[in-house]
Amino acid sequence: MAYDGVAKVQHYVPQFLLRNFGTGKKDQLHVFNKASEKTFLSSARNVAAESRFYDFEVDGVGLTIEPALSRLETAVKPILVKLLNVDSLGALTEEDRVTLANFFAVQFVRTKAARVAADDVERQLREEMRRRGIRDEQLEEIGFAANKNTSAAMTINTIIKAPQDYGYTFMEKHWVLLGAPAKDPFVLGDHPLAMHNARPSNDIWGNIGLMVPGIEIYFPISPVRALAMWCPTIRDELRRYAIGIRALRRSNMPQSKEQENEFATILEAAHAMESGSVLHYKPENIKHFNSLQIIHAESLVFSSRDDFDFARLVVAQSDELRRGRRMRIS
Questions:
Q1: Where are the domains of the chain?
Q2: Measuring CA to CA, how many Å separate 310 from each of 40, 42, 241, 284, 288?
Q3: Threshold 0.70, pTM exceeds
Q4: In whole angstroms, how large is the CA radius of gyration of the chain?
């Protein structure tokens, strides 16, 4: 079956993003494998990709969305270049933000981690149905006849609908530009949109999800810049804290050194949030950011430096951290 003019090796993390984390003339990346803890050097073209990853068949006809993904990446790359050059979110037009939001929506569901996680949910559902006495032929009738092509087709359908289904979700978040020093850089996982929620879970679905209150979404752009997309409730809380801190300072009420440090951190975050300027992360913040990239990655973590001691500490905590995140169906 021919896919004329379509690349056989198809990336689920864009090559331009991988190259941002490369060094030297050939943009060589340092790579960490979560399962084996082995490290190696690679070019961007040889990682975060699989043969025919976005190809599938319908009634024997070969189809692919690889060209559409390439066009989206072509539209996004100059926007991120502009953001890095100007070093302020003020550089982004409303059209830029819409394009980026649609890109993030697609990126969120296009990775191997997303496909494997979806396949795992379907596997759990099949097993649960079998336990309840539903026969395999009945499972096939209701669409649970899993094979590589149907899995790819289901994932690709999700990717196609992603801008419509999730684009607005990224638009309504409050974006903050994050900074790290070159000596203590951000890393990039093979599922780059990583999430965190400091709030406790209130229901069986947990506290992680694009539209869950309090959600924080993080996306590395380069070793020294990243984008945070925070729930509007976080923005509102920061604004209230900043107003209170400024009032305290005007009152000349004495504060401890620890309180002053905490106040300074909050005010810095509030200023960056309002102005679009860079919020420079402290070492503990960078560790937290990188831990999310490591945890959400399916298998590979990329860095501009050959230093994965922290990644080894993260994955050593649990065998489950040696692969991507999974949802348990109970």
A1: 9-322
A2: 16, 20, 32, 12, 11
A3: yes
A4: 21
